[in-house]
Amino acid sequence: MEDASFSNKESKPIGFAPPFIDEDTIAAVSRVLRSGWITTGPETAAFENELAQYCGAERVACGASWTGLAGVILDWFGVGPGDEVILPSYTYCATANVVLHRGATPVLVDLPEPSNQDGLNIRWADVLPHLSPRTKVIMPVDIGGWPIPASDWITELTAWSKENGFQASNGVQSQLGRPLLLLDAAHSLGAALDGAIVGSQADLSVFSFHAVKNLTTAEGGAVAIALPAPFDAHDVHQTFRTLGLHGQSKDAAAKFQSGAKDAWRYDVTTPGFKCNMTDIQAAMGRVALARYSQDLATRRSLADRYDGGFDAWTEVILPERSDARRVSSDHLYPIRLPRFSEDQRNALMAWLQGKGIATNVHFQPLPMLSAYADRGHKQEDHPAAMGAYSCEISLPIHLHMSIQDVDRVVQAVREGHAHVMAQTEDSKA
Ligand SMILES: Cc1ncc(COP(=O)(O)O)c(C=O)c1O
């Protein structure tokens, strides 16, 4: 039995983002395992409907991962060699990799100079100079769960396209008549903009349900479909499902569960991918979604406690969590220590590790990684992202933590900061 008292928790290691698997999740997975149907089927369909209702999108399509779904979407939009996709340099590699997989070109945008309002997100003003006739998709990222103002971006993008034109190279692109706003919402399930949950403002918003995310299905993802008319969200959902299953016109459930004569027969309309969600994953997701408002409230109280603990400490820049229009999903709690060099940041992380506290860095800007450096992306073109990276530490925030754990982390960060500062002074002397 776990002892809830502070003194017993004091020496217990605090992991970075262990998954929260309750007995209801185990029961739901067991139910599906015993049901005789374990791949995409009724659980996935139910999870899609519940997600659509939760985030206010007309339809949601689930898949095996964010990466699988983002790939399907870029293929549906016809993104390929010669096309450009604008995305931040300050993100996880997946955002750029899906573009490279299509032979298209990721155009990397630096962060703005430190601004409280935007947190670690890029702004529309930073995207604007990069728009060109080759731009097919804009893929901003809600870093840490802090939402970009997606509805403003749609307005700006529509106005820009009216003024500058848009060269559509297929039917889907002509239907939209402008570049696609594909939101990397991997971190921002449950974040809100203007009172609406993320998922109804960008054309398409893709969530990740990877093991460390706020809501997890071990691996998994979902796309919320909010394309303007004349798109039919039901047709687009069907297309994404088909493209995520080899382009097969029927999935296994439709073949085996319908009972109709010749139900086994199907066509392959295009050589699609294989990135469908299983009913085992969906069963996990449904339990977590039913609990999600409560989970968000827990995360919020932990983040509030961090805010309070660091209040008035001039060494730290705290994450953006709410303003007049936005509320974060508190996926990460990324602090920045602007007086610290990268080495000092690393020394503090090691100090915290020594105290049993796991931390992380979000993110290494893409030009730091060989795959993108080898493709000509230079760190010196991304000074703000490099500056943010070098002094950033993501502190643990998850459902196994108590308020006392947060207090312990705050105290350790402050002590560790003083220790690293003193060490630096010593080495100078
Ligand atoms: C910002 C961002 N985008 C995309 C992904 C990829 O998600 P997935 O692992 O579900 O493919 C991640 C995963 O960590 C992420 O952090």
Descriptive report:
With 429 residues, the chain is α/β, with parallel strands linked by helices. The protein folds into 2 domains: 23-290, Aspartate Aminotransferase, domain 2; 292-428, Aspartate Aminotransferase, domain 1. 41% of the residues lie in helices and 11% in strands. The protein has 16 helices and 12 strands. It has helices at 6-9, 23-35, 42-55, 66-76, 93-101, 124-127, 150-164, 171-176, 233-243, 252-257, 279-290, 292-310, 342-354, 370-373, 383-390, 403-428; strands at residues 59-63, 84-88, 105-109, 135-138, 180-184, 192-193, 196-197, 204-208, 221-225, 326-327, 333-336, 392-395. The strands form 3 sheets. A 7-stranded mixed beta sheet has the order 1-9-8-5-4-2-3, sandwiched between helices. A 3-stranded antiparallel beta sheet has the order 7-6-10, with no helix packed on it. Strands 11-12 form a two-stranded antiparallel ribbon. 48% of the residues are buried. Residues 1-9 have low confidence and may be disordered. The structure holds pyridoxal-5'-phosphate. Pyridoxal-5'-phosphate binds at residues 65-67, 91-92, 94-95, 141, 184, 186-187, 208, 210, 221. Pyridoxal-5'-phosphate binds next to helix 4 and helix 5.
What labels would you give this structure?
globular; binds pyridoxal-5'-phosphate; Aspartate Aminotransferase, domain 1; 16 helices; 41% helix; Aspartate Aminotransferase, domain 2; three-stranded antiparallel β-sheet; alpha/beta; 429 residues
